[in-house]
Amino acid sequence: MAMQIESEYFSLPKAGNRKDEYEDAFNSSIFVHKDTAYYKFAIADGASESSFADIWADLLASGYCNGKFDSKHIHKFISKLSKAWKRKLNAGDLPWYAQEKLNSGAFSTLAGITFRLTDASSAAFDAVAIGDSCIFQIRGDNIIAFFPLGSVEDFHHRPVLISSNAANNIHLQAFVKKWSGTAQAGDSFWLMTDALACWLLTRYEEDISVIKKIYGLAREHDFIYFVQAERKLMCPGGSFYLRNDDVTLIRVNLV
């Protein structure tokens, strides 16, 4: 029997923020060409210190899933989305102070993965990331790979961000990370924006049974309850296990 893919999506804004202040984004798509089905998933984390980051993050995630992302010509991909971002803002109608922030550009991370399914018993995948939004490959109760960061400590560095202003992207090509591999039936892939990804690695280092917590999230209510509880728990070092930030999870199951 050919492999299939199931997916679920969970998101929540920062504590104290409204839903319309959520600045992460996620997207997915499916298309078939000849004998191969392509499943695309992407998340993006808009930087709060920039303006209209939610719109920018949404364009990046949807651009990846619409097949417009070209890792070899990243500036061409960004240029088209920058124009779309400005059109969405109706820049001419903005007050002068908003115009000034607009000129600085919006910023966001991006992580996307594409699965190629045929009649084979395994699925090939290609992933790409810029910044600290992460993808985990889960088999059973174990993380067998994660991308693009290497450890919890990597979350403490300022991430590389994609800007809607081309002048801020001069060195961006050097920071495009790629990952390719194969997956088998039963594997799960979890796409997470940085706060949740850092939480998972921290908790996993203490106790691998944390994987079951993510498997156990069945409904939106479960996710909200889980995030709110983890935001209140303190690490031995005195910080919170889950930083107060927008959180996004795409759970992709290969069955």
Structure description:
This protein is of the alpha+beta class and 255 residues long. The protein is 27% helix and 32% strand. The chain contains six helices and twelve strands. It has helices at 53-65, 74-89, 96-104, 194-206, 210-215, 220-230, and strands spanning 5-12, 24-33, 36-45, 107-108, 110-117, 122-130, 134-139, 142-147, 162-163, 177-184, 188-192, 247-254. A five-stranded antiparallel β-sheet has the order 1-12-11-7-8. Strands 2-3-5-6-10 form a five-stranded antiparallel β-sheet. The protein starts with a strand and ends with a strand. The model has no long low-confidence stretch (mean pLDDT 93).
Radius of gyration: 18 Å
Instruction: State the shape.
Output: globular
Query: Which spans of ≥5 residues are poorly predicted at pLDDT below 50?
Result: none
Strand count: 12
Biggest sheet strand order reads 1-12-11-7-8
The biggest beta sheet, please?
5 strands, antiparallel
The oligomeric state of the chains shown is: single chain
Structural class: alpha+beta
Q: What is the average per-residue confidence, as pLDDT, rounded to a whole number?
A: 93
Counted by DSSP, the helix tally is: 6
Helix percent reads: 25-40%
The end-to-end distance, rounded to whole angstroms, is 10 Å
Strand portion: 25-35%
